[in-house]
Amino acid sequence: MNLLYKSTRSEDVTVTASQAILKGLADDGGLFVPTSIPKLTIALSELAKLSYQETAFEVMRLFLTDFTDDELKNCINKAYDSKFDTEEIAPLVKADGAYYLELFHGSTIAFKDMALSILPHLLTTSARKNEVKNDIVILTATSGDTGKAALAGFADVEGTKIIVFYPKDGVSPIQEKQMVTQKGDNTYVVGIKGNFDDAQSGVKDMFNNKDLAKAMEEAGYQFSSANSINIGRLVPQIVYYVYAYSRLLANGQISNGEKMNVVVPTGNFGNILAAYYAKNMGLPIGKLICASNDNKVLYDFFKTGTYDRNRDFILTTSPSMDILISSNLERLIYRIAGGDATKTKDLMNALSSAGMYDITDDMKAELADFIGGYADEAKTASTIRDLYEKTGYVIDTHTAVAAAVYTDYVEATKDETKTVIASTASPYKFTRSVMEAIDGKYASMTDFELVDELSTIANVKVPQAIEDIRSAEVLHDTVCDTEKMQDTVETILKMK
Ligand SMILES: *Cc1c(COP(=O)(O)O)cnc(C)c1O
Question: Is the whole model's pTM more than 0.70, yes or no?
Fold first, then answer.
Protein backbone atom coordinates (compact mmCIF):
# COMPACT_ATOMS: atom_id res chain seq x y z
CA MET A 1 0.00 0.00 0.00
CA ASN A 2 1.22 3.45 -0.88
CA LEU A 3 1.31 5.89 2.05
CA LEU A 4 0.74 9.48 1.01
CA TYR A 5 1.47 12.73 2.78
CA LYS A 6 -0.56 15.90 3.09
CA SER A 7 -0.11 19.35 4.54
CA THR A 8 -1.24 20.14 8.10
CA ARG A 9 -2.88 23.29 6.66
CA SER A 10 -4.94 22.11 3.70
CA GLU A 11 -6.98 19.10 2.66
CA ASP A 12 -6.38 19.01 -1.05
CA VAL A 13 -2.68 18.44 -1.71
CA THR A 14 -1.29 14.93 -1.38
CA VAL A 15 2.27 13.98 -2.27
CA THR A 16 4.44 10.87 -2.09
CA ALA A 17 7.10 10.45 0.59
CA SER A 18 9.91 11.29 -1.82
CA GLN A 19 8.14 14.45 -2.97
CA ALA A 20 7.59 15.52 0.65
CA ILE A 21 11.30 15.00 1.36
CA LEU A 22 12.29 17.05 -1.69
CA LYS A 23 9.96 19.93 -0.86
CA GLY A 24 10.59 20.05 2.90
CA LEU A 25 7.70 22.44 3.59
CA ALA A 26 4.30 22.46 1.86
CA ASP A 27 3.50 25.46 -0.35
CA ASP A 28 0.81 26.61 2.10
CA GLY A 29 3.42 26.84 4.87
CA GLY A 30 2.14 23.65 6.55
CA LEU A 31 4.16 20.57 7.47
CA PHE A 32 3.82 17.27 5.66
CA VAL A 33 2.18 14.48 7.67
CA PRO A 34 1.34 10.90 6.68
CA THR A 35 -2.36 10.42 5.92
CA SER A 36 -2.30 7.64 8.54
CA ILE A 37 0.35 6.27 10.87
CA PRO A 38 1.28 2.73 9.82
CA LYS A 39 1.36 -0.11 12.38
CA LEU A 40 4.50 -2.12 13.03
CA THR A 41 4.23 -5.29 10.98
CA ILE A 42 6.92 -7.27 12.75
CA ALA A 43 6.47 -8.89 16.17
CA LEU A 44 8.34 -7.28 19.07
CA SER A 45 10.05 -10.59 19.84
CA GLU A 46 11.42 -10.61 16.28
CA LEU A 47 12.55 -7.00 16.55
CA ALA A 48 14.74 -7.92 19.50
CA LYS A 49 16.90 -9.97 17.13
CA LEU A 50 17.57 -7.12 14.68
CA SER A 51 20.53 -4.79 14.31
CA TYR A 52 20.04 -1.02 14.23
CA GLN A 53 20.18 -1.01 10.43
CA GLU A 54 17.64 -3.84 10.15
CA THR A 55 15.33 -2.08 12.61
CA ALA A 56 15.66 1.11 10.55
CA PHE A 57 14.58 -0.80 7.47
CA GLU A 58 11.54 -2.36 9.19
CA VAL A 59 10.35 1.03 10.43
CA MET A 60 11.22 3.32 7.54
CA ARG A 61 9.83 1.12 4.79
CA LEU A 62 6.37 1.60 6.33
CA PHE A 63 6.63 5.37 5.91
CA LEU A 64 8.66 5.71 2.71
CA THR A 65 6.53 3.42 0.61
CA ASP A 66 7.61 4.80 -2.75
CA PHE A 67 11.23 3.81 -2.07
CA THR A 68 12.20 0.33 -3.27
CA ASP A 69 13.70 -2.04 -0.68
CA ASP A 70 17.08 -1.69 -2.36
CA GLU A 71 16.94 2.09 -2.40
CA LEU A 72 16.07 2.25 1.27
CA LYS A 73 18.66 -0.34 2.34
CA ASN A 74 21.27 1.54 0.38
CA CYS A 75 20.43 4.81 2.19
CA ILE A 76 20.49 3.07 5.57
CA ASN A 77 23.80 1.32 4.98
CA LYS A 78 25.47 4.51 3.81
CA ALA A 79 24.21 6.43 6.85
CA TYR A 80 24.71 4.07 9.80
CA ASP A 81 28.25 2.86 9.20
CA SER A 82 31.67 3.52 10.71
CA LYS A 83 30.87 7.23 11.02
CA PHE A 84 29.35 6.06 14.29
CA ASP A 85 31.90 5.11 16.92
CA THR A 86 29.92 2.06 18.06
CA GLU A 87 28.35 -0.77 16.09
CA GLU A 88 25.23 -0.50 18.22
CA ILE A 89 24.73 3.02 16.76
CA ALA A 90 22.49 4.01 19.70
CA PRO A 91 23.57 2.18 22.88
CA LEU A 92 21.29 1.94 25.91
CA VAL A 93 23.14 2.60 29.18
CA LYS A 94 21.59 1.95 32.60
CA ALA A 95 22.44 4.45 35.33
CA ASP A 96 20.69 5.15 38.61
CA GLY A 97 17.54 3.23 37.67
CA ALA A 98 16.97 4.84 34.23
CA TYR A 99 18.01 3.77 30.75
CA TYR A 100 19.94 6.41 28.81
CA LEU A 101 19.56 6.03 25.05
CA GLU A 102 22.84 7.52 23.81
CA LEU A 103 22.03 9.25 20.52
CA PHE A 104 25.38 11.01 20.24
CA HIS A 105 27.72 8.45 18.73
CA GLY A 106 27.66 9.97 15.23
CA SER A 107 30.21 12.25 13.65
CA THR A 108 29.17 15.52 15.32
CA ILE A 109 28.36 13.98 18.74
CA ALA A 110 24.78 15.25 19.03
CA PHE A 111 21.50 13.50 18.24
CA LYS A 112 21.02 15.55 15.04
CA ASP A 113 23.38 13.00 13.43
CA MET A 114 20.73 10.26 13.79
CA ALA A 115 18.65 11.91 11.05
CA LEU A 116 21.16 14.12 9.25
CA SER A 117 23.43 11.23 8.38
CA ILE A 118 20.63 9.64 6.34
CA LEU A 119 18.74 12.71 5.04
CA PRO A 120 21.28 13.44 2.24
CA HIS A 121 20.82 9.91 0.89
CA LEU A 122 17.02 10.08 1.17
CA LEU A 123 17.12 13.42 -0.62
CA THR A 124 19.36 12.34 -3.51
CA THR A 125 17.32 9.15 -3.92
CA SER A 126 14.13 11.24 -3.95
CA ALA A 127 15.65 13.55 -6.57
CA ARG A 128 16.45 10.56 -8.79
CA LYS A 129 13.01 9.04 -8.37
CA ASN A 130 11.35 12.31 -9.35
CA GLU A 131 13.76 12.90 -12.23
CA VAL A 132 15.16 16.07 -10.77
CA LYS A 133 18.13 16.95 -12.97
CA ASN A 134 19.39 19.95 -11.04
CA ASP A 135 22.01 19.85 -8.33
CA ILE A 136 20.40 20.41 -4.96
CA VAL A 137 21.69 23.32 -2.91
CA ILE A 138 20.99 22.99 0.80
CA LEU A 139 20.76 26.39 2.46
CA THR A 140 20.92 26.34 6.24
CA ALA A 141 21.00 28.98 8.95
CA THR A 142 22.34 27.65 12.21
CA SER A 143 22.92 28.65 15.79
CA GLY A 144 25.51 25.88 16.11
CA ASP A 145 24.50 22.22 16.17
CA THR A 146 22.32 21.73 13.09
CA GLY A 147 24.87 23.42 10.81
CA LYS A 148 27.68 21.05 11.67
CA ALA A 149 25.52 17.92 11.50
CA ALA A 150 24.13 18.98 8.11
CA LEU A 151 27.63 19.76 6.81
CA ALA A 152 28.90 16.38 7.94
CA GLY A 153 25.90 14.64 6.41
CA PHE A 154 26.08 16.36 3.03
CA ALA A 155 29.88 16.51 2.66
CA ASP A 156 30.90 14.92 -0.66
CA VAL A 157 27.36 13.67 -1.40
CA GLU A 158 27.12 13.72 -5.17
CA GLY A 159 24.59 16.06 -6.73
CA THR A 160 24.44 18.34 -3.67
CA LYS A 161 26.08 21.47 -2.33
CA ILE A 162 25.57 22.78 1.17
CA ILE A 163 25.91 26.39 2.30
CA VAL A 164 25.68 27.12 6.02
CA PHE A 165 25.30 30.63 7.46
CA TYR A 166 26.11 31.17 11.13
CA PRO A 167 26.27 34.31 13.28
CA LYS A 168 30.00 35.10 13.37
CA ASP A 169 29.91 36.19 17.01
CA GLY A 170 26.95 34.10 18.15
CA VAL A 171 28.22 30.51 18.44
CA SER A 172 30.56 28.85 20.92
CA PRO A 173 34.27 28.53 19.99
CA ILE A 174 33.95 24.73 19.74
CA GLN A 175 30.88 25.01 17.52
CA GLU A 176 32.60 27.52 15.22
CA LYS A 177 35.75 25.42 15.02
CA GLN A 178 33.69 22.33 14.15
CA MET A 179 32.12 24.17 11.22
CA VAL A 180 35.06 26.12 9.76
CA THR A 181 37.23 23.02 9.65
CA GLN A 182 34.63 21.03 7.66
CA LYS A 183 36.11 19.08 4.75
CA GLY A 184 34.32 18.28 1.46
CA ASP A 185 34.46 20.06 -1.91
CA ASN A 186 30.72 20.75 -1.82
CA THR A 187 30.66 22.42 1.62
CA TYR A 188 30.58 26.18 2.24
CA VAL A 189 30.49 27.90 5.61
CA VAL A 190 29.84 31.62 5.88
CA GLY A 191 29.91 33.76 9.02
CA ILE A 192 27.56 36.70 8.91
CA LYS A 193 27.86 40.02 10.71
CA GLY A 194 24.51 39.62 12.43
CA ASN A 195 22.63 37.30 14.77
CA PHE A 196 20.86 33.99 14.19
CA ASP A 197 17.57 35.71 13.29
CA ASP A 198 19.37 37.71 10.57
CA ALA A 199 20.84 34.49 9.18
CA GLN A 200 17.44 32.78 9.27
CA SER A 201 15.56 35.62 7.57
CA GLY A 202 18.30 35.98 4.94
CA VAL A 203 17.90 32.30 4.08
CA LYS A 204 14.09 32.58 4.01
CA ASP A 205 14.32 35.57 1.64
CA MET A 206 16.39 33.49 -0.75
CA PHE A 207 13.89 30.61 -0.63
CA ASN A 208 11.10 33.03 -1.50
CA ASN A 209 12.95 34.96 -4.22
CA LYS A 210 11.33 33.96 -7.53
CA ASP A 211 13.98 35.69 -9.68
CA LEU A 212 16.70 33.85 -7.85
CA ALA A 213 14.85 30.53 -8.30
CA LYS A 214 14.70 31.18 -12.04
CA ALA A 215 18.39 32.04 -12.28
CA MET A 216 19.20 28.95 -10.22
CA GLU A 217 17.12 26.75 -12.53
CA GLU A 218 19.01 28.15 -15.54
CA ALA A 219 22.31 27.38 -13.83
CA GLY A 220 21.13 23.83 -13.03
CA TYR A 221 20.38 24.24 -9.32
CA GLN A 222 17.46 24.15 -6.92
CA PHE A 223 17.22 24.86 -3.20
CA SER A 224 16.17 22.41 -0.52
CA SER A 225 16.11 22.38 3.26
CA ALA A 226 17.74 20.25 5.94
CA ASN A 227 15.87 21.63 8.92
CA SER A 228 13.82 19.59 11.29
CA ILE A 229 10.45 20.14 9.65
CA ASN A 230 11.49 17.83 6.79
CA ILE A 231 9.70 14.48 7.08
CA GLY A 232 13.03 12.95 6.03
CA ARG A 233 14.37 13.96 9.43
CA LEU A 234 11.35 12.83 11.45
CA VAL A 235 11.02 9.27 10.12
CA PRO A 236 14.62 8.19 10.92
CA GLN A 237 14.06 9.42 14.49
CA ILE A 238 11.20 6.97 15.06
CA VAL A 239 13.66 4.11 14.56
CA TYR A 240 15.66 4.57 17.76
CA TYR A 241 12.60 4.36 20.00
CA VAL A 242 11.71 1.01 18.46
CA TYR A 243 15.36 0.00 18.81
CA ALA A 244 15.44 1.06 22.49
CA TYR A 245 12.44 -1.15 23.24
CA SER A 246 13.98 -4.04 21.36
CA ARG A 247 17.22 -3.65 23.37
CA LEU A 248 15.27 -3.75 26.66
CA LEU A 249 13.59 -6.93 25.44
CA ALA A 250 16.82 -8.50 24.20
CA ASN A 251 18.52 -7.74 27.51
CA GLY A 252 15.64 -9.23 29.49
CA GLN A 253 14.99 -5.84 31.11
CA ILE A 254 11.36 -5.69 30.02
CA SER A 255 8.79 -8.37 29.19
CA ASN A 256 7.12 -8.55 25.79
CA GLY A 257 4.32 -5.98 25.65
CA GLU A 258 5.22 -4.30 28.95
CA LYS A 259 5.16 -0.51 28.61
CA MET A 260 8.16 1.81 28.77
CA ASN A 261 8.05 5.55 29.43
CA VAL A 262 10.25 7.97 27.52
CA VAL A 263 11.69 11.32 28.61
CA VAL A 264 12.87 13.70 25.90
CA PRO A 265 14.76 17.00 26.32
CA THR A 266 12.77 19.14 23.93
CA GLY A 267 13.25 22.22 21.79
CA ASN A 268 11.63 22.12 18.37
CA PHE A 269 9.47 19.09 19.35
CA GLY A 270 10.92 16.85 16.63
CA ASN A 271 12.47 14.19 18.84
CA ILE A 272 9.47 13.66 21.14
CA LEU A 273 7.08 13.73 18.17
CA ALA A 274 9.02 10.77 16.77
CA ALA A 275 8.37 8.92 20.06
CA TYR A 276 4.66 9.76 19.76
CA TYR A 277 4.59 8.38 16.22
CA ALA A 278 6.33 5.22 17.51
CA LYS A 279 3.60 4.84 20.14
CA ASN A 280 0.94 5.29 17.45
CA MET A 281 2.64 2.54 15.45
CA GLY A 282 1.91 0.17 18.33
CA LEU A 283 5.18 0.33 20.26
CA PRO A 284 4.30 -0.17 23.97
CA ILE A 285 5.08 3.35 25.20
CA GLY A 286 3.30 4.62 28.33
CA LYS A 287 4.00 8.25 29.14
CA LEU A 288 5.74 10.73 26.85
CA ILE A 289 7.54 13.07 29.22
CA CYS A 290 8.46 16.37 27.57
CA ALA A 291 11.34 18.11 29.38
CA SER A 292 12.02 21.84 28.95
CA ASN A 293 14.62 24.23 30.34
CA ASP A 294 13.77 27.74 31.58
CA ASN A 295 12.13 28.43 28.19
CA LYS A 296 9.17 26.39 29.39
CA VAL A 297 6.52 27.21 26.75
CA LEU A 298 5.75 23.52 26.32
CA TYR A 299 5.46 22.83 30.05
CA ASP A 300 2.87 25.61 30.29
CA PHE A 301 1.11 24.32 27.19
CA PHE A 302 0.68 20.79 28.54
CA LYS A 303 -0.50 22.18 31.86
CA THR A 304 -2.98 24.78 30.62
CA GLY A 305 -3.79 24.10 26.96
CA THR A 306 -2.52 27.58 26.06
CA TYR A 307 0.56 27.99 23.90
CA ASP A 308 2.05 31.42 24.57
CA ARG A 309 5.37 32.55 23.16
CA ASN A 310 5.00 36.09 24.52
CA ARG A 311 7.77 35.94 27.10
CA ASP A 312 11.48 36.62 27.44
CA PHE A 313 13.89 34.39 25.58
CA ILE A 314 16.26 32.97 28.20
CA LEU A 315 19.82 31.91 27.35
CA THR A 316 20.65 28.69 29.18
CA THR A 317 23.41 26.08 29.37
CA SER A 318 21.22 23.86 27.14
CA PRO A 319 21.19 26.21 24.11
CA SER A 320 19.71 23.68 21.64
CA MET A 321 16.51 23.84 23.71
CA ASP A 322 16.40 27.65 23.86
CA ILE A 323 13.39 28.07 21.63
CA LEU A 324 9.96 29.63 21.94
CA ILE A 325 8.34 28.38 18.74
CA SER A 326 8.44 24.58 18.57
CA SER A 327 7.70 24.04 14.88
CA ASN A 328 6.98 20.34 15.04
CA LEU A 329 4.23 20.82 17.62
CA GLU A 330 2.07 21.68 14.58
CA ARG A 331 2.07 18.00 13.65
CA LEU A 332 0.74 17.05 17.09
CA ILE A 333 -1.87 19.81 16.98
CA TYR A 334 -3.06 18.45 13.64
CA ARG A 335 -3.48 14.97 15.10
CA ILE A 336 -5.27 16.01 18.28
CA ALA A 337 -7.56 18.18 16.13
CA GLY A 338 -8.58 14.91 14.44
CA GLY A 339 -6.72 15.77 11.22
CA ASP A 340 -8.61 19.06 10.84
CA ALA A 341 -6.40 21.20 8.58
CA THR A 342 -8.60 24.31 8.83
CA LYS A 343 -8.47 24.24 12.62
CA THR A 344 -4.69 23.71 12.56
CA LYS A 345 -4.24 26.58 10.14
CA ASP A 346 -6.34 28.91 12.33
CA LEU A 347 -4.26 28.09 15.41
CA MET A 348 -0.98 28.58 13.54
CA ASN A 349 -2.22 31.90 12.17
CA ALA A 350 -3.06 32.95 15.73
CA LEU A 351 0.46 31.96 16.78
CA SER A 352 2.04 34.15 14.13
CA SER A 353 -0.27 37.14 14.66
CA ALA A 354 -0.87 37.12 18.42
CA GLY A 355 1.96 34.83 19.52
CA MET A 356 -0.48 32.48 21.22
CA TYR A 357 -3.44 30.11 20.89
CA ASP A 358 -5.74 27.96 23.06
CA ILE A 359 -6.74 24.42 22.26
CA THR A 360 -10.21 23.03 23.01
CA ASP A 361 -10.99 20.69 25.91
CA ASP A 362 -11.49 17.84 23.43
CA MET A 363 -8.04 18.42 22.02
CA LYS A 364 -6.57 18.65 25.50
CA ALA A 365 -8.08 15.28 26.37
CA GLU A 366 -6.03 13.77 23.53
CA LEU A 367 -2.84 14.83 25.31
CA ALA A 368 -3.34 12.53 28.31
CA ASP A 369 -0.18 10.54 27.58
CA PHE A 370 2.01 13.64 27.59
CA ILE A 371 3.55 14.98 30.77
CA GLY A 372 5.31 18.36 30.71
CA GLY A 373 8.15 19.15 33.09
CA TYR A 374 11.00 21.62 33.32
CA ALA A 375 14.28 22.14 35.11
CA ASP A 376 15.99 25.45 35.84
CA GLU A 377 19.73 26.04 35.61
CA ALA A 378 20.56 25.16 39.22
CA LYS A 379 18.58 21.93 39.06
CA THR A 380 20.19 20.97 35.75
CA ALA A 381 23.68 21.47 37.17
CA SER A 382 22.95 19.58 40.40
CA THR A 383 21.51 16.70 38.39
CA ILE A 384 24.79 16.35 36.46
CA ARG A 385 26.79 16.46 39.69
CA ASP A 386 24.56 14.07 41.66
CA LEU A 387 24.48 11.45 38.90
CA TYR A 388 28.24 11.66 38.50
CA GLU A 389 28.89 11.35 42.23
CA LYS A 390 26.48 8.44 42.58
CA THR A 391 27.43 6.43 39.49
CA GLY A 392 30.44 7.96 37.71
CA TYR A 393 28.30 8.48 34.59
CA VAL A 394 28.54 11.96 33.03
CA ILE A 395 25.65 13.42 31.01
CA ASP A 396 25.43 16.65 29.02
CA THR A 397 23.30 19.65 30.00
CA HIS A 398 20.37 18.82 27.67
CA THR A 399 20.16 15.23 28.89
CA ALA A 400 20.41 16.56 32.46
CA VAL A 401 17.24 18.63 31.94
CA ALA A 402 15.47 15.38 31.05
CA ALA A 403 17.01 13.48 33.96
CA ALA A 404 15.93 16.21 36.40
CA VAL A 405 12.37 16.17 35.08
CA TYR A 406 12.30 12.38 35.35
CA THR A 407 13.39 12.49 39.00
CA ASP A 408 10.60 14.98 39.79
CA TYR A 409 8.08 12.82 37.94
CA VAL A 410 8.98 9.68 39.87
CA GLU A 411 8.84 11.54 43.16
CA ALA A 412 5.39 12.91 42.36
CA THR A 413 3.84 9.75 40.91
CA LYS A 414 5.83 6.77 42.25
CA ASP A 415 5.50 5.40 38.70
CA GLU A 416 7.90 2.45 38.41
CA THR A 417 7.54 1.93 34.66
CA LYS A 418 10.89 1.26 32.97
CA THR A 419 12.01 4.56 31.52
CA VAL A 420 14.22 5.53 28.59
CA ILE A 421 15.81 8.98 28.68
CA ALA A 422 16.88 10.35 25.28
CA SER A 423 20.51 11.38 25.73
CA THR A 424 20.89 14.00 23.02
CA ALA A 425 24.49 15.18 23.20
CA SER A 426 27.87 13.99 24.33
CA PRO A 427 29.10 15.79 27.45
CA TYR A 428 32.14 16.69 25.34
CA LYS A 429 30.02 19.03 23.26
CA PHE A 430 29.23 21.18 26.29
CA THR A 431 32.35 20.45 28.32
CA ARG A 432 32.57 23.74 30.18
CA SER A 433 29.00 23.75 31.51
CA VAL A 434 29.24 20.06 32.41
CA MET A 435 32.56 20.35 34.24
CA GLU A 436 31.57 23.50 36.12
CA ALA A 437 28.40 21.71 37.23
CA ILE A 438 30.55 18.92 38.66
CA ASP A 439 32.96 21.23 40.47
CA GLY A 440 33.42 25.01 40.52
CA LYS A 441 37.20 24.54 40.55
CA TYR A 442 37.14 23.85 36.80
CA ALA A 443 36.16 27.44 35.96
CA SER A 444 39.76 28.53 35.44
CA MET A 445 40.73 25.85 32.89
CA THR A 446 40.79 26.30 29.08
CA ASP A 447 38.30 24.41 26.90
CA PHE A 448 40.77 21.73 25.83
CA GLU A 449 42.14 21.30 29.36
CA LEU A 450 38.57 20.61 30.41
CA VAL A 451 38.19 18.05 27.63
CA ASP A 452 41.17 16.10 28.97
CA GLU A 453 39.98 16.44 32.54
CA LEU A 454 36.52 15.13 31.55
CA SER A 455 38.14 12.14 29.92
CA THR A 456 40.01 11.40 33.15
CA ILE A 457 37.12 11.74 35.57
CA ALA A 458 34.51 10.00 33.36
CA ASN A 459 36.93 7.37 32.09
CA VAL A 460 35.60 7.88 28.55
CA LYS A 461 37.86 8.33 25.53
CA VAL A 462 37.77 11.79 23.94
CA PRO A 463 35.52 11.43 20.85
CA GLN A 464 37.12 11.72 17.42
CA ALA A 465 34.96 14.79 16.68
CA ILE A 466 36.79 16.67 19.44
CA GLU A 467 40.24 15.29 18.59
CA ASP A 468 39.67 16.38 15.00
CA ILE A 469 39.18 20.02 15.83
CA ARG A 470 42.11 20.29 18.22
CA SER A 471 44.58 20.57 15.37
CA ALA A 472 42.36 20.87 12.28
CA GLU A 473 43.08 23.51 9.69
CA VAL A 474 40.56 26.29 9.14
CA LEU A 475 39.14 25.74 5.64
CA HIS A 476 36.37 28.35 5.61
CA ASP A 477 36.95 32.00 6.39
CA THR A 478 34.23 33.81 4.42
CA VAL A 479 32.45 36.50 6.40
CA CYS A 480 29.78 38.74 4.92
CA ASP A 481 27.33 41.47 5.80
CA THR A 482 23.72 40.35 6.25
CA GLU A 483 22.66 42.14 3.06
CA LYS A 484 25.33 40.28 1.07
CA MET A 485 24.10 36.75 1.77
CA GLN A 486 22.51 36.30 -1.66
CA ASP A 487 25.59 37.78 -3.38
CA THR A 488 27.71 35.27 -1.50
CA VAL A 489 25.51 32.37 -2.62
CA GLU A 490 25.66 33.53 -6.24
CA THR A 491 29.45 33.79 -6.04
CA ILE A 492 29.77 30.32 -4.49
CA LEU A 493 27.55 28.86 -7.24
CA LYS A 494 29.51 30.81 -9.89
CA MET A 495 26.31 32.44 -11.13
CA LYS A 496 27.99 35.83 -11.49
C1 LIG B 1 18.21 19.79 18.81
C2 LIG B 1 18.53 19.34 20.18
C3 LIG B 1 17.53 19.12 21.16
C4 LIG B 1 16.06 19.41 20.89
O5 LIG B 1 15.50 18.48 20.00
P6 LIG B 1 14.10 18.81 19.28
O7 LIG B 1 13.89 17.70 18.32
O8 LIG B 1 14.33 20.14 18.59
O9 LIG B 1 13.07 18.89 20.32
C10 LIG B 1 17.89 18.64 22.41
N11 LIG B 1 19.18 18.41 22.70
C12 LIG B 1 20.18 18.61 21.80
C13 LIG B 1 21.59 18.35 22.21
C14 LIG B 1 19.90 19.08 20.52
O15 LIG B 1 20.91 19.30 19.64
Answer: yes
